[in-house]
């Protein structure tokens, strides 16, 4: 296990370096001049040249990249071109909103997906199975921005039960929970559908195994057969889906945060792209990439905990 963690750590470093290079070059090759955006429409050529000199934008691109990476190694992600705020400070301020939203969405996805998948497998070809399969297909197909807009229209505008948007109250308060409900459902629906389909297929495969038939033949209660014997082995592939989806949720909050006006990492990234704020975009992308790899490492560790047969030696 220690060897796995060490190998993944070095893979993480290589991956982040590659991602940082791609994002850095993409931002610099995109049309538009950050100096012109920062200076505004009234800035003269001398003003823009002074901005380029101050920000180091007149240096060769590779020199700019190596200068940036030197700062990253020291924990300095640079300063925003628009606000002159440290990117690290901006990320620390906004990350809790994104993390809370991702956690709430994952809870929605796991609870709905696993329960629906298991019941569908137990009651194969029943009305519940057919209904959940149809809903799962719809959940994967529906775009986040449309679902979020519809939920706002129904539960906020028409019924007035939940807030329209924002996430400014602590998540552990009643108001904070109300603010999280609609965004969490919006973001977690597609993941719930994928988890439900995976749970159903793996549970169907496991319940037909020889050891399950043996347990039933010995007179073990059906509930024990399903929840103690079958579920643990059926959850191995599901854990993969959950882990990958959680990493995707952290990066996929961009649209949901825009729809519900949540000041999170996704919205910070979009604002940075719109204003060609290189340090902000690079810092947020690096964070999301690092979290995605770390989540996958945690999934591998959980594998070994759930199934002792798995070895990483």
UniProtKB/TrEMBL annotation:
Subcellular location: Cell membrane
GO molecular function: nickel cation transmembrane transporter activity
Ranges of residues in domain ABC transmembrane type-1: 95-303
Pfam families: BPD_transp_1 (PF00528), BPD_transp_1_N (PF19300)
Membrane-protein topology: Multi-pass membrane protein
UniProt keywords, alphabetically: Cell membrane, Ion transport, Membrane, Nickel, Nickel transport, Transmembrane, Transmembrane helix, Transport
TM helices/strands, residue ranges: 12-30, 101-122, 134-160, 180-198, 285-306
A Gene Ontology cellular-component term: plasma membrane
Family annotation (InterPro entries): BPD_transp_1_N, MetI-like, MetI-like_sf, Opp2B
Record PROSITE patterns: ABC_TM1
Assembly behavior: The complex is composed of two ATP-binding proteins (NikD and NikE), two transmembrane proteins (NikB and NikC) and a solute-binding protein (NikA).
Family: Belongs to the binding-protein-dependent transport system permease family. OppBC subfamily.
Record's protein name: Nickel import system permease protein NikB
